[in-house]
# Entry
Amino acid sequence: MIKKSKIITFFLIVAIIFGTVIFTMKPVLDKINLGLDLQGGFEVLYQVKPADGKSKVTDDVMKETVATLDQRINALGVNEPIITIESGHRIRVQLAGVTDQNEARKILSTQAVLSFRDANDKLMMDGSDLVPGSAKAVTNDKNQAIVTLELKSKDKFANVTKTIAAKAPDNQLVIWLDWKEGLKYKTERVKENPAFLSAPNVDRELDTKKVEISGSFTMESAKELANLLNSGALPVKLTEVYSTSVGAQFGQDALAETILAGIIGVAAIFIFMMAVYRLPGIIASITLVAYTYIVLLVLGLLNATLTLPGIAGLILGIGMAVDANVITYERIKEELKVGKSTKTAFDTGGKESFRAIFDGNISTLIVAGVLFYFGTSSIKGFATVLIISILVSFLTAVWGSRALMGLLVSSNALNNKPGLFSVRRKDIHDLHEGKQTFDLKTHFDRYDFVKHHRAFLTTFAVIVVAGIVILSVFKMNLGIDFASGTRAEVSSTSALTEQQISKDLKEINMPSDDITFQNNNKTAVISYKGALTQDEVAKFKTHFTKAYGEEPNISTVTPTVGQELAKDGLWALAIASLLIVVYIAFRFELSMGVATILSLLFDAFMIFIFFSIFRLEVDLTFIAAVLTVIGYSINDTIVTADRIRDVSYKMGRFKKPEDIAFAVNHGLRQTFIRSINTILTVLFTVIALIIFGNESILNFSIALLVGLVSSVFSSIFMAMQLWYVFKKRELKKKGVIQTQKKKKRSRTDQPVV
# Structure
């Protein structure tokens, strides 16, 4: 009898899910902060050094510096700046939505040490004599912009002015901002030095607390100086070691393109799931909608910043989330085929698939955690989204989809309707036959995967040797993230030419021999081996913004930071690999862990070879892609390993190599389809990102594609073959030990004559 209440509850829950998404999605999205690569802005990493070159930079000094920078950023009117202290006496500043990046850089890095000196450069007063927050930009009676200050001690100023007045004709009170040793007021070009503010003549003692700084100020520059003085002098010197900036228009275009790619990729997953799994596929699509909404909701509640790689991580996460559904539905189909009822098949399939889903997600979570620990800025954003995605997929794909499916199953409406689960009646055995799931026939039963294991492993070995040769000859095309230097992207609404860009660079006296084009020649990529100075960056931005109407994107990395990023990337790869070996060894056995990680490292190696051959640029997102492939492609191996473990339990202890071969062949044959399907769902999203996504994450997406395709072959023809070899040797070793024990025992048991 059909229980209509269960069906009504099902449709009511579905209506609530879609209603919630439709009516609350906009406010949820509004709470999510967009990173600077999506709304424009810049990020800069400063090396903090003592201002006098002698003092020690302490934790208190770092905190004081951050507080001063925060005050200056508030003066810029930037919402929600991100300022973090990093190891090695470094401070990272991220400012999204900044309209004038040149001004922001200048205000941040200026020490703002005000000093009052005589004409012979002797210090008379400094910024510590000012009343905090007293600086104001006003106009005088001649309608000229000036800065007014208030001093703490009227008497001290009176003494200073009295001393200066007595030095006539050298009776100037010279006012400097960030005066440096070697600057002399009595030089011809002193007024061209940006440190010089003004030098009023003092002809009498001034009994006042009020001071006016006049000069060739505009009202904007006067306000800028007042803001700097009010925010306080930096107690240290800030040296820029890394920076990246993104124009607002570029950010908007990147967001639109990536969202379009995501919609297309997710739509492809929906169509695929419904075509292959029918009713369960529809339920998977519903839970994927809930999954996407919950991930965005969590990001909003955490006040997280969503970056371009973060959106790519969200799209990739959707492909990963559906894997749990694929694994579960394939197990349910197997249970139906051995003759079990719909309810029993649903319960057993869900229970049996949980182990593989759990192990696969934990492995990916390990890699995401390593990425978060070692990553910086946008890569941390990618790792954050990946971690949230994995945790939420447990909620939706495991619990949510089973809850919805359970309602329909318990309603009895699905009884004796295997077609709804994409199972043909002719493939269903009678329950009384006593068939087990590992007894089921597959389309791959005629293939002996283990028979040619030597040929498979030899092929992989040849590829590795050839890859080493390729890497030694071609090497990697390191981007500025690792090789250091400056990379600038100039965009235009029309096609650009090398002659045109070279002419522009010549005008600003910043020529480059490395000019390439992207986006149908509408984007010129200009590279410099050395890091540009702040003044050069400002000059570059000003010229090209005026020439083409869009602010260029500029990234600068010093050699020190480039080396550190490379080192961190290798550490991340090594630690993630070690943790996966430990986890797989714990969940399965050490030999499986070693075989698994060797195949995963091969997948990573294939990405390196591909990028080397095709001269694709290696940047920060490349490392994220490599680690993501390692974390995700392990899913195929785990699904197969889980099935081999089931077969092994039913067979008992392996007694001969043929037993091991049978288990491996059986596991591969029965999981081949689900391995292909789980990879396909992720490939849909990756291919969509490559075709429709933004140019800046193209190499990231290509790396994922290469690694995922490689993982299909390595998990089947390498990982399991290696495990077979390891187990075979282990069996032989045990056999030798047992034989030796028997011989020893037989000699002991002989009678003494």
